[in-house]
Write a structure and sequence with these properties.
Belongs to the glycosyl hydrolase 43 family. The chain has 305 residues and is mostly beta strands. It contains one helix and 19 strands. The structure holds beta-L-arabinofuranose (FUB).
């Protein structure tokens, strides 16, 4: 290989251009939770790998988590594996079950939330927490999962008064619990989010804008497939009123998103399977999102190639 080609290959392993979707091409990444910490943009996604038994396998193969930061406004830096399935103190080994995570900052500490299969053999996932003094880790992983809740897709909201809410769940029901100040225990029993439309739901993500709580979620809209929908309310517990779709279905597979305001612009992060063409080898993407004057969200058209 020519020296110049080798340099390009090595660089593209660590850095990929922001200017195009998908955001990175050296890994399959899904469920991107984007966060802005101290003005810098980070993404905490999950990681799909090719199953040993072939792509016809009906299940996701997700052995670990990587994380990324935006460098110089145009490249995504990959920090490598921040948690491997076999390092989860309470987790089943080799479960390939490291689904969508989230990370938030409270005080000077970063809290990384992730679902995993517990080693007690139960069918449902639990949610664990790791802490770090840096957004990029290393994280110190808690010895146990958060007691009192079962489910996937942790999504965190820290309100203006410092109270923290954990949204989670999948299937027909999504839930919210307030967390204690230690961020590792629930302060209130899970409450079901009411008044959402029928259909399979997951991927909760709640954010606050102009005093309104936007509860957003992946929703298998009857007759259409996976969409991203939203509801609004005046309290982090709801009640919420369904307002419509942020993104229509873009293919026969999951979608999972997060929404951040970065440098004054709203961005929707989500996933598709641009590179593989296979809906269990996904790639994270991003497109700008806008609000109308009445506070409703303009539907985002994915910038598909
Ligand atoms: O990536 C595994 C699962 O698929 C996530 O937890 C769901 O939100 C869906 O994207």
């Amino acid at each position: 290989m020519k020296k110049s080609n080798l340099i390009f290959l090595l660089l593209s392993i660590c850095y990929t251009s922001l200017a195009q979707n998908p955001l990175v091409t050296h890994l399959f990444t899904a469920d991107p939770t984007a966060r802005v910490f101290d003005g810098k943009l980070y993404i905490y996604p999950s990681h799909d790998i090719v199953p040993e038994h072939g792509v016809d396998a009906p299940k996701f193969c997700m052995p670990d988590y990587h994380m990324f930061s935006l460098e110089n406004g145009s490249t995504w830096k990959d920090y490598g594996v921040i948690l491997d399935q076999n390092e989860v103190p309470w987790g089943e080994k080799n479960s390939n079950g490291m689904w969508a995570p989230d990370c938030v900052k409270k005080g000077n500490t970063y809290y990384y939330y992730y679902p995993a299969k517990p080693k007690d053999g139960s069918a449902f996932r639990r949610i664990g927490v790791g802490t770090s003094k840096s957004p990029t880790g290393p994280f110190k992983w808690g010895k146990s999962y958060i007691k009192g809740l079962k489910g996937i897709d942790p999504g965190l909201l820290i309100d203006d008064d410092g109270k923290t809410y954990l949204y989670f769940g999948g299937g027909k029901e999504l839930f919210v619990s307030q967390l204690k100040d230690n961020m590792k225990e629930i302060a209130s029993e899970p409450i079901k989010i009411e008044a959402l439309p029928e259909g399979y739901k997951e991927g909760s993500f709640c954010f606050k804008k102009d005093g309104i709580y936007y509860f957003t979620f992946a929703h298998v809209f009857p007759g259409e497939g996976y969409t991203i929908g939203y509801a609004t309310g005046k309290s982090p517990f709801g009640p919420f009123q369904y307002r419509g779709k942020i993104m229509d279905n873009i293919g026969n597979g999951t979608n999972h998103h997060s929404i951040v305001n970065y440098q004054g612009k709203w961005i929707l992060f989500y996933h598709w399977w641009d590179i593989s063409g296979y809906n269990k080898l996904r790639s994270m993407r991003a497109d700008y999102m806008e609000f109308k004057e009445d506070g409703s969200i303009k539907k985002v058209k994915p910038s598909l190639r």
